[in-house]
Amino acid sequence: MNEKEQLISEPRINDRIRVPEVRLVGPKGEQIGVVPVAKALRLAQEADLDLVEVAPNSKPPVAKLMDYGKFKYEAAQKAREARRNQTNAQLKEIRFRLKIDSHDYETKKGHVIRFLKAGDKVKVMIMFRGREQSRPEFGYKLLMKLAEELREYATIESKPLQDGRNMTMVLAPTRTKAEVKAEADRAKRQAEAEATSETPADN
Predict the structure, then answer these.
(1) Selection from 182, 203, 186 nearest residue 194 by Cα
(2) Which of 63, 65, 178, 188 lies 20 to 30 Å from 169, alpha-carbon distance?
(3) Does domain 3-68 sit in CATH 3.10.20.80?
(4) What distance in Å separates the CA atoms of residue 190 and residue 20, rounded to the nearest whole number?
């Protein structure tokens, strides 16, 4: 990225703000009011902060006092985390027969729960055989029964839809991949802390 591109993609800060006055916002979001840009720069220097133009198209432009380096770092961290979560989330697929016995049903439901608890979406598919295609309402009923039983773990992202010999429904987990990972990390840290506290001290 060259300097010109950087100036276009990033907000103007400090001496790059070339307007006579700005509507100034304090570091905690407090409204300071319209002040000459020279005064805003002086306040930024006194607080050891940057003056950042956050709404250049306003009249006058809105500028905020903040630690711009810290702000950029935190924004980059959030974007990286969002990309990682998006990449890790997968669409799993489970197939049911319309005339499924209760044991097989419970086994497959257990697989769906495991995927959802891991933060993955699940595409549930019912395969119709022969004359079963003429009774799609039974497939719909089975899928909605499953969704009802999994309310604790999932919401319906895509309602049952028939496509030829199949009917599909997509379930989305109630907790994201990031939340699942954060909980696992917390549990791991807690277990490590407990193990450390239980270690007997040397005499």
Answers:
(1) 186
(2) 178
(3) yes
(4) 54
Closest CA to 87 of 120, 124, 122, 123: 120
Alpha carbon distance 48, 65 (integer Å):
9
CATH of domain 89-177: 3.30.110.10
At 174-198, the pLDDT tens digits run: 877 667 777 777 888 888 888 777 6
Q: Can you tell me the distance from the alpha carbon of 183 to that of 185, in angstroms, rounded to the nearest whole number?
A: 5
DSSP 13: B
β-strands 21-25, 62-66 pairing: parallel
Of the two residues 99 and 202, the one the predictor is more confident about is 99
Question: How much is the pLDDT for 104?
Answer: 94
C-beta of residue 125 within 8 angstroms of C-beta of residue 161: no
pLDDT digits (tens, 9 = 90+) for 96-150: 998 899 999 999 999 999 999 888 899 999 988 888 888 889 999 999 999 999 9
pLDDT tens per residue across span 109-121: 999 999 998 888 9
DSSP 8-state class, residue 179: H
> What is the DSSP secondary-structure string of 119-185?
T-EEEEEEE--GGGGG-HHHHHHHHHHHHHHTTTTEEEEEEEEEETTEEEEEEEESS-HHHHHHHHH
- Name 156's bridge partners: 171
3-state SS class at 36: strand
